[in-house]
Write a structure and sequence with these properties.
single chain; alpha/beta; TIM Barrel; 4-stranded mixed sheet; 10 strands; globular
Length: about 400
């Protein structure tokens, strides 16, 4: 997909090199070739039209066949439909039009340098107030000691430490780049970028320039939660809201930094707020393209007492499928196994998801909220989950360059 990505020559040779300025879409520009299919003769255009038990899905299918864009009413209908199999058929067909039977994953590691945080989000069981003696803060040597050369991606998200200067966050990136010049660095959410701008008294653009010079390649999508001021005031009122989050990603895209996007669902948000969130992401991608993926993050109950039970697997699958059909301009929908759980994530590969994220190796944030998934998984486990769903595993790097295609099982 990213064969068309452009990079500038730099005075310092970087591998991978730094991104060039300019917002650009990462949607595929051609239909997938025969290597993308388990059975090339069964491409979507050759399949018969499905039948639906829900009339609203029939209406949506007709709109899709005419190339019409789905709207808020369609989004709400998909999130509520009793015809889950029909919704899966529509979403999987759209995913197959884009990527064939391929499902992508990356050999990566997540690093969370500190859990000390000046924010007080009600749903977060990971972050600790600076006054809590149990908070931790990793040194750069600690961070480097968790990285090995065969990794393709380092994913860094953290708390907003009360004593760390912006320069320390920059040095984390710089020292990783110097020690591991071939590993792609995906780091710092929009919440952290906004925090860096405030503590350094620099603009967001200046913050990004410094981070790019240090070795930043791409940006994760966390911190969006739900684009609802009602929910923000109730759960995370000291964190940036929708407009600020979207603006940080707008600037990142304009500077050529590819990013991800997320939603945290299954807490106190309404279905209408869930759909509105997706549509605002779609609007930003229309205006300033640059998203690589959308990641539905299921709220983990943890110790927050926000609700009595987790979102159901069916709710998660509906959300994955709805996002695939609504977000017609974002290349990938992730089945994030850390929060969905391995089995539901595997099923989601037939509900429009085309990516399973990666090996992770050491995830702390969701597991602080008692996520039941493993802390990390081996590459072989991801291959099994993808093949079990009837899909073709493709190993990628952080920006979806293909690293290796794995054959179908004999």
């Amino acid at each position: 997909m990213s064969d068309s990505m452009e990079y500038a020559d730099t005075a310092t040779t970087l591998d991978p090199p730094r991104p060039t300025r300019g917002a650009r879409s990462h949607m595929p520009t051609a239909s997938p070739g025969p290597e993308a299919f388990l059975h090339p003769g069964l491409r979507p255009e050759r399949l018969s039209d499905p039948t639906f038990r829900d009339p609203s899905l029939e209406t949506i299918a007709k709109k899709l066949s005419r190339g019409e864009r789905l709207d808020k009413t369609d989004g709400l209908a998909m999130l509520a439909t009793p015809d889950v199999n029909g919704l899966a058929t529509l979403a999987d067909r759209r995913k197959t039009e884009l990527w064939g039977d391929q499902v992508f994953f990356v050999f990566n590691r997540q690093i969370n340098p500190t859990n000390a945080c000046v924010l007080d989000c009600k749903f977060c069981d990971y972050a600790l107030r600076p006054s809590n003696p149990d908070h931790y803060a990793m040194s750069i040597d600690d961070i480097l000691g968790r990285i090995t050369p065969e990794l393709r991606e380092i994913h860094i998200v953290s708390g907003l430490h009360h004593r760390w200067k912006f320069e320390y966050y920059v040095d984390i990136i710089r020292q990783i780049r110097l020690a591991f010049p071939k590993i792609q660095i995906k780091a710092w959410t929009a919440v952290e970028i906004d925090f860096f701008a405030k503590i350094s008294k620099k603009s967001v653009e200046e913050v990004f320039e410094i981070l790019i010079d240090a070795g930043l390649n791409s940006m994760p999508g966390g911190g969006a939660e739900v684009f609802s001021e009602r929910v923000r005031q109730e759960l995370f009122r000291h964190k940036i809201g929708a407009d600020e989050w979207l603006n940080v990603h707008r600037i990142a895209h304009q500077m050529g930094i590819p990013t991800n996007s997320t939603i945290l669902y299954g807490h106190i948000e309404t279905m209408e707020e869930r759909v509105d969130h997706m549509l605002r992401l779609r609007e930003l991608e229309d205006e300033a393209p640059g998203f690589l993926a959308f990641i539905p993050l299921e709220f983990q109950l943890g110790y927050s007492n926000l609700r009595a039970r987790s979102a159901s697997a069916v709710d998660g699958l509906r959300t994955v499928a709805t996002s695939r059909l609504l977000l017609d301009n974002i290349p990938h929908i992730k089945a994030y196994w850390v929060m969905l759980g391995e089995e539901t994530a595997s099923i989601a590969l037939n509900f429009g998801a085309s990516d399973m994220d990666g090996t992770i190796l050491e995830e702390k944030i969701a597991h602080a909220a008692k996520a039941e998934s493993p802390i990390g998984v081996a590459r072989d486990r991801l291959l099994h989950l993808i093949r079990e769903a009837g899909k073709l595993p493709v190993e990628r790097d952080a920006v979806y360059n293909v690293v290796r295609r794995y054959p179908k099982e004999s």
